[in-house]
């Protein structure tokens, strides 16, 4: 490799992104990882990481001052060219560090569009992208105005939780206010939104310099909200190539990325196709690879490993090289995942040749299936869902499932 390796600082509050770290190292770079002390014993790809630094606390309770000083200390000996956030919760930390240290990449204002559900909605609305009706919870008159004019049911949503954790569904004005009063001063960190029944889709994409390189569109067969609030089986499968819905979601996704100022990297964006009017509404986005093994499902369908390609994109930007996306396959894939009553469920009876991947999470039973035919994927997902529900499924309290997707 003629070009000098660069120094990357990766931040992850959750055990994920090994494929990203491995690929960065394979490209000849120096790779530093900052993670939480609680994740010390996780099987990180240690041989591909030059050094790991551990922060006390998890998620949002890292002390940013301590983080900044630690990174400042590191920079005395190392020229950090790029800072990468591998999980939702790390976006704020990465944007804060980039702004303070003047390192290129997404800054704090743009970062908000990929973390704060209120910022997302206002930006989408201002950019003429359809969103369900919503209101912040800052002003009592605004809330009453919303409740008097927008038909129920509504959902109260935390502005910055990853996944469907912490969502409260309400059916009338009285219970809306009851819940808002219960939130107390924390109401600032929530919004209220009209609940639109419909199918939820996710677009998993890669971009470079503002160009959409890749986008795979899938549909949740049971929504993450249903799962995190009452067990059940999480399922998703990619859409028929060239179908009307696939084209519409791709178009909507490109509009969101442009409006939100996404330049380069991976994104995971959710839309709902409303049952009542057939329109596609934006729900939320994130500047990361989708969780819950959706990356493996996308890879099964397209041959594109989102983590590895994201690493190559970051590498090419740091080295000012051209990036070339590998050839994209057009197969079909689907995932099903549920909490299991066994620590290591025995899934060996699921032995169809289409089984592509078995999810290695403790107390979870999960499979990814792959075929050249969409019907076959759907048939297996239906058949397996019944079998998995009967043999393995269990229901945990919602907090257990904080990071389900």
UniProtKB/TrEMBL annotation:
This is ATP-grasp domain-containing protein. The keyword Glycoprotein does not apply. Keywords: ATP-binding, Ligase, Nucleotide-binding. Signal peptide: none annotated. InterPro entries: ATP-dep_AA_Ligase, ATP-grasp, ATP_grasp_subdomain_1. GO terms for molecular function: ATP binding; ligase activity; metal ion binding. Transmembrane segments: none annotated. Residues 121-315 form the ATP-grasp domain. Gene3D superfamilies: 3.40.50.20, ATP-grasp fold, A domain, ATP-grasp fold, B domain. It comes from Algoriphagus antarcticus. Pfam families: ATP-grasp_4.
């Amino acid at each position: 490799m003629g070009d000098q390796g660069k120094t990357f600082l990766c931040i992850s509050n959750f055990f994920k992104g090994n494929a990203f770290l491995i690929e960065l190292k394979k490209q000849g770079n120096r790779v530093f990882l900052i993670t939480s002390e609680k994740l010390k014993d996780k099987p990180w790809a240690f041989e591909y990481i030059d050094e790991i630094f551990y922060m006390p606390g998890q998620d949002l309770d890292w002390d940013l001052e301590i983080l900044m000083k630690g990174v400042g200390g590191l920079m005395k000996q190392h020229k950090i060219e790029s800072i990468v956030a591998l999980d939702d919760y790390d976006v704020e930390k990465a944007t804060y560090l980039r702004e303070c240290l003047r390192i290129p990449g997404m800054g704090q204002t743009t970062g908000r569009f990929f973390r704060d559900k209120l910022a997302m909605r206002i930006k989408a609305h201002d950019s003429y992208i359809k969103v369900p009706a919503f209101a912040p919870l800052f002003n009592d008159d605004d809330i009453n105005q919303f409740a008097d004019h927008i038909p129920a049911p509504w959902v109260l949503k935390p502005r910055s939780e990853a996944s469907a954790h912490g969502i409260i569904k309400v059916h009338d004005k009285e219970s809306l206010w009851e819940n808002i009063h219960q939130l107390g001063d924390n109401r600032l960190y929530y919004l209220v939104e009209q609940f639109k029944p419909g199918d939820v889709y996710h677009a998993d994409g890669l971009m470079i310099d503002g160009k959409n390189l890749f986008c795979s569109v899938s549909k949740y067969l049971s929504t993450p909200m249903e799962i995190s609030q009452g067990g059940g089986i999480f399922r998703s499968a990619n859409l028929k190539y060239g179908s009307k819905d696939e084209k519409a979601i791709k178009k909507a996704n490109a509009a969101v990325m442009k409006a939100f100022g996404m330049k380069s990297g991976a994104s995971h964006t959710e839309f709902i196709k409303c049952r009542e009017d057939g329109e596609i509404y934006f729900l939320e986005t994130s500047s990361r690879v989708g969780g819950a093994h959706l990356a493996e499902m996308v890879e099964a369908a397209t041959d594109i490993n989102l983590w590895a390609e994201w690493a190559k994109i970051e590498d090419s930007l740091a080295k000012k090289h051209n990036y070339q996306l590998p050839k994209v396959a057009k197969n079909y894939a689907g995932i099903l995942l549920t909490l299991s009553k066994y620590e290591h469920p025995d899934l060996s009876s699921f032995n169809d040749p289409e089984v592509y991947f078995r999810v290695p999470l403790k107390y979870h039973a999960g499979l990814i299936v792959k075929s050249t035919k969409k019907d076959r994927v759907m048939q297996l997902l239906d058949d397996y869902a019944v079998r998995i529900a009967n043999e393995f499924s269990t229901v945990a309290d919602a907090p257990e499932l904080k990071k389900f997707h």
